[in-house]
Amino acid sequence: MGIREAWDAFWEHANKAINRSFVGSYFQLEARKSCFTQEFRAGTVTFLTIVYIITVNALLITESGGPCGPQDCTGPDAGDPNCVFPDEYGDTNDGYSACLDTVRRSLVTATAASSCIACALMGLGANMPVALAPGMGLNAYFSAVVGYRGSGTVAYQTALAAVCVEGILFIILAVTGLRLRLIRLVPKSIMLATSAGIGLFLAFIGLQSQEGLGIISYDVGTLLALGACPASSQSSVYVVDDPSSVCTVVDGVVKTELPPASINFACTDGKMHNASTWLGIAGLMLMGILMSRSFKGSIITGIAFVTVIAWIPGHAATYLGMRSQIPGGADRLQEFKRVVDVPTLKGTGGAISFKGFQSGELWIALVTFLYVDFLDTTGTLFSMASFINNYVPGFMNAKKEFPRQTFAFCVDGLSSIIGSFMGTSPIAAFIESASGIREGGRTGLTALTVSLWFFVSLFFGPVLSSVPPYAIGPALITVGALMMMNVVRIKWEQAAEALPAFITIILMPMTYSIAYGIIGGLLSYIVINGANLLLDKLAECMHWSIAGTDAQPSGAGGSFISRLQSNTGGAAQGGRPSPGAVLRAVTAAADARRRGPSSATAPSGSADRTPDITPTISRNASSQDTKALQLQMAGRPPLHSKDHPGKSTHVDATDNV
């Protein structure tokens, strides 16, 4: 037996032993067709696709200044409210700069620690292969509320209190069951579209430069365009509220007050000449080839392939050093060489303050945190459960329920509370968890593996945070493609279902928000189907005015609507005839009215007479002549039985005109 065979035999034996143990029973490994090594591999893939959050979240919130303020400035500007901003030469006060550096390191720790705890809770309590961390979008909004270096409407400490209260409200919604009641109201087409929309959102992220391949970039005319240009051809983008402040003359000195450059850029030349992008594309093709060969570990293999090559300095596709096509390569190389870092919460830990809740802006921020986090996390969790259901049939039942879902929702709120005391923005479930599910994640062991890696990153952050975005992008695109499989279950032939579903799908990537996609889909669904309901009611009212309220044939009882219900086989929808039947009946009655009263009489010699116009076919009419007359009034020829020529055949109640 060779080394490889012995290694495989060892892990096969270990997996069987773990599956039979208490651990395997608790996490339902056999029931969900999984094993320990599969879960560990899936958790590693999930972590690698979200590890960027450690540095990105810290940088975004550091822009707000955190708890730093004029009191941290040193020198002659100490205490000056403007000392927190760069001077005309772009330099920042030394004391304030030192405070920002402490805050940044503290936020790195807060991000990793809060994510570690959140993933552990999700794995142990909810047994779901879903990773949680400070949500992208929510952290940007948090930073915007506080403002650039504290220039916003809400103080950093008070914004943390809003995050804490939002987490408490989140738990209340989950425990009382109100959240599940709201979810059950969501139409099936919107739920299916949410999963597909998240997949498209993932792929869109994977195509961008900050967290992906960089194939698309900003364009002033079309918003998006083909990118992947080298650093020398990248043009910075600035967002300026007041153009007059860009170039001013004060005491004969020209001053520019450009804000920090956007993370996006436009390509002036050299599109698709970026070597880093081509390395990422090679990783994407490698994943596709391995997946088509049913190779387990295809995603993590592709990520490792790109990362190892990108860590080698000196070539055009490197992520570290001066030759990197992504700005900051020299700083990343120095950070990478540190290998180990000491975690600290000195800058942000315990900074939360519940003072200032009288501010209207704070309550606006609180409500925004709540509804965005509610829709984002709810949509993500149900989409992940639906994705798991593709591999483990029965995981999600017809009522849109999955095992331990109440605790899963509570984890989100509890994690946000913990994160607020560490100094970070709301915690949310990450859609990148789908990459781990595709790799084989089925249980909470996947989330526990992610938690383990976040714990390791507390000490080895410099290395783990150096995974290049063009190694992550291929994984996001691959998983995004797989999540589109639910789109075939949408009833595209029905406009009332198809259009809201499409709006849900397309708005998620285009607005960069899961919440806005769900809102757009629900609103369009309500408008379209609500209008149809109103039109049906209007048709019913028209029917009363045309047919009369009490007109009825001899020997029959009840109003026209009652007879219509009996003629259509009872109530089609909640005790009333179907809207389509009512509308068709009104049309037939109107046609009969236009033909005049002579057409409303039965032929000579008929056994029955029909004194009013009946626009539907009676189930128990007493003569063939009446049936023929009713068919003719509806614009259709009489039906004749093959066995008995000349006699009208029986017409089922559902055969309405």
Automatic annotation (TrEMBL):
<feature type="transmembrane region" description="Helical">
    <location>
        <begin position="406"/>
        <end position="431"/>
    </location>
</feature>
<keyword id="KW-0472">Membrane</keyword>
<dbReference type="InterPro" id="IPR045018">
    <property type="entry name" value="Azg-like"/>
</dbReference>
<feature type="compositionally biased region" description="Basic and acidic residues">
    <location>
        <begin position="640"/>
        <end position="657"/>
    </location>
</feature>
<feature type="transmembrane region" description="Helical">
    <location>
        <begin position="500"/>
        <end position="528"/>
    </location>
</feature>
<keyword id="KW-0813">Transport</keyword>
<feature type="region of interest" description="Disordered">
    <location>
        <begin position="558"/>
        <end position="657"/>
    </location>
</feature>
<dbReference type="GO" id="GO:0005345">
    <property type="term" value="F:purine nucleobase transmembrane transporter activity"/>
</dbReference>
<feature type="transmembrane region" description="Helical">
    <location>
        <begin position="275"/>
        <end position="293"/>
    </location>
</feature>
<dbReference type="GO" id="GO:0015854">
    <property type="term" value="P:guanine transport"/>
</dbReference>
<feature type="transmembrane region" description="Helical">
    <location>
        <begin position="443"/>
        <end position="464"/>
    </location>
</feature>
<dbReference type="GO" id="GO:0012505">
    <property type="term" value="C:endomembrane system"/>
</dbReference>
<feature type="transmembrane region" description="Helical">
    <location>
        <begin position="112"/>
        <end position="134"/>
    </location>
</feature>
<feature type="compositionally biased region" description="Low complexity">
    <location>
        <begin position="597"/>
        <end position="607"/>
    </location>
</feature>
<feature type="transmembrane region" description="Helical">
    <location>
        <begin position="299"/>
        <end position="322"/>
    </location>
</feature>
<dbReference type="Pfam" id="PF00860">
    <property type="entry name" value="Xan_ur_permease"/>
</dbReference>
<feature type="compositionally biased region" description="Polar residues">
    <location>
        <begin position="613"/>
        <end position="629"/>
    </location>
</feature>
<feature type="transmembrane region" description="Helical">
    <location>
        <begin position="190"/>
        <end position="207"/>
    </location>
</feature>
<feature type="transmembrane region" description="Helical">
    <location>
        <begin position="154"/>
        <end position="178"/>
    </location>
</feature>
<dbReference type="GO" id="GO:0015853">
    <property type="term" value="P:adenine transport"/>
</dbReference>
<feature type="compositionally biased region" description="Low complexity">
    <location>
        <begin position="581"/>
        <end position="590"/>
    </location>
</feature>
<keyword id="KW-1133">Transmembrane helix</keyword>
<feature type="transmembrane region" description="Helical">
    <location>
        <begin position="362"/>
        <end position="386"/>
    </location>
</feature>
<protein>
    <submittedName>
        <fullName>Uncharacterized protein</fullName>
    </submittedName>
</protein>
<dbReference type="GO" id="GO:0005886">
    <property type="term" value="C:plasma membrane"/>
</dbReference>
<dbReference type="InterPro" id="IPR006043">
    <property type="entry name" value="NCS2"/>
</dbReference>
<keyword id="KW-0812">Transmembrane</keyword>
<comment type="similarity">
    <text>Belongs to the nucleobase:cation symporter-2 (NCS2) (TC 2.A.40) family. Azg-like subfamily.</text>
</comment>
<feature type="transmembrane region" description="Helical">
    <location>
        <begin position="470"/>
        <end position="488"/>
    </location>
</feature>
